[in-house]
Amino acid sequence: MDAEQFRRAGYQAIDRICDYHSTLRNRPVTSQVEPGYLRKALPPSAPTEGEDIQVIADDYQKYIMPGLTHWQHPSFYAYFPTSSTFEGILAELYASSTSNPGFNWSASPACTELEAVVMDWTAQLLGLDRSFYNISEVGGGIIQTSASDSALVATVAARSRYIREHPHVAIENLVLYISTQTHSLGMKAGLVLGLKVRTLQVTAQDDFALRGDTLKAALEEDLSAGLHPFILIGTVGTTSSGAVDRLDEIGEIAKNYPFLWLHVDAAWAGVAYACPEYREAYHLPAINNYVDSFCTNFHKWGLVHFDGSCLWVRHRRHLIDALDITPEFLRSKQGDAGTFLFLWSCCFNVDGVCIGTAIDYRNWHLGLGRRFRSLKFWFALRARGVNGFQKYITDCIKLNNRFAQRIYESDLFAVVTKPSLSMTVFRIAPKSLSNLETLELNALNRAFYARLAARNDIAFTQTDLNGVFCVRMVVGAEKTVESDIDYALALIKEEAMILVGNWARMRG
Ligand SMILES: *Cc1c(COP(=O)(O)O)cnc(C)c1O
């Protein structure tokens, strides 16, 4: 292909991407294909000879597009959103165009330096304490692939710190603490690292938040049994219901157990700290005072398309102590000069003068090579600015409040837990059928959810809160507006009326 053909294919791709975004509203939200549809449609082997880009690009529209769920669709309320900006998507093209595994400073100085800068921008945007900034040269921030990777890395660092400080402890006596509402990333970290996991209980009365006393009782019990709890994964905004652990209480307890690493997983909700009015109620002061590491995914509710999970640590040396294995060929005068020399060395200008320290991000995550993800953060944050970012967050919360308010007022539905930011967990609970047993009501709600899931013009997800089956609604697509919320309300009402009518007839 010559340069002109490349250019034409490139223009066409951009055109089609723009068309996709401007016609999103007219598409079905969820894909309706059958499992295995693609295997049937595609040849069993790669072509022997190269094919024309036009044919490949057309096949993308023909075969791949029908199998996609449109997460940016204004009626997508399932899981958590994965928002994006067009500017960030363009940044991704630029980043891909240099195909660059920037694992250390000299592999591509801009990759390391931009990441260090945007992680300080985002730390500042969220109101994190300065000790988490890269510029502090003590703590720092890194972009990981997912919150699961962030939690795994934090657990590796915590384990390494604990073993260093307690060299005679057997690994099988270490315990990782989570709550019943912690995302499966807690169990997975335990599984991958071969750790005992203790699941702490939470209650509906506490809105599914982990309390300080529960932690204290577990610590006392385990310590007297000769076990070694070494990390707690707390959550701000649980996946099921948006619950917020009582980090204020947890921090006060943990102060007396300084060997316990506190990691906070705020994968979805953490970006709301960009709006100062949410900082106090969602325990940012406790994060700033007590925690060792904090994670939020900008690729959920932070206008940066997948992937971009931000992890900040109070002491970067714990990451490096745990993860630095520097063979000779990766040593450079700008990076971690091997553990036996000095963990942090200077970047030198052409005259050999130190002009600041370089981070070796390869020692802050599990792999070696890393994607150039900071570029899309840089584009997205600049395109929206702090004001635009805050407005997006508050707009989502307002839209969810509109939804929650109607649910509160309704005779058909009930809110199951207090709405959290842009999330409402609700269920059918018809006043006309108020004598239904829990099990019957769960069955009714399963049937309700099945009706919703069979539609392709809207997407929700289900959850179970201590035996109560319910439906989650999370606002986050940038294109969602009030009329979309009203459409969702009308639609769930219509489905619920049909079901409640049938139910009453069946029993009557
Ligand atoms: C979505 C979510 C996760 C998982 O995020 P990944 O980045 O996909 O690993 C973890 N914790 C919470 C609270 C979440 O909402």
TrEMBL record:
<dbReference type="InterPro" id="IPR010977">
    <property type="entry name" value="Aromatic_deC"/>
</dbReference>
<dbReference type="GO" id="GO:0006520">
    <property type="term" value="P:amino acid metabolic process"/>
</dbReference>
<keyword id="KW-0663">Pyridoxal phosphate</keyword>
<dbReference type="Pfam" id="PF00282">
    <property type="entry name" value="Pyridoxal_deC"/>
</dbReference>
<dbReference type="GO" id="GO:0030170">
    <property type="term" value="F:pyridoxal phosphate binding"/>
</dbReference>
<comment type="similarity">
    <text>Belongs to the group II decarboxylase family.</text>
</comment>
<dbReference type="GO" id="GO:0019752">
    <property type="term" value="P:carboxylic acid metabolic process"/>
</dbReference>
<dbReference type="InterPro" id="IPR002129">
    <property type="entry name" value="PyrdxlP-dep_de-COase"/>
</dbReference>
<feature type="modified residue" description="N6-(pyridoxal phosphate)lysine">
    <location>
        <position position="300"/>
    </location>
</feature>
<dbReference type="GO" id="GO:0005737">
    <property type="term" value="C:cytoplasm"/>
</dbReference>
<dbReference type="InterPro" id="IPR015422">
    <property type="entry name" value="PyrdxlP-dep_Trfase_small"/>
</dbReference>
<dbReference type="InterPro" id="IPR015421">
    <property type="entry name" value="PyrdxlP-dep_Trfase_major"/>
</dbReference>
<protein>
    <recommendedName>
        <fullName>Aromatic-L-amino-acid decarboxylase</fullName>
    </recommendedName>
</protein>
<dbReference type="GO" id="GO:0016831">
    <property type="term" value="F:carboxy-lyase activity"/>
</dbReference>
<dbReference type="InterPro" id="IPR015424">
    <property type="entry name" value="PyrdxlP-dep_Trfase"/>
</dbReference>
<keyword id="KW-0456">Lyase</keyword>
<keyword id="KW-0210">Decarboxylase</keyword>
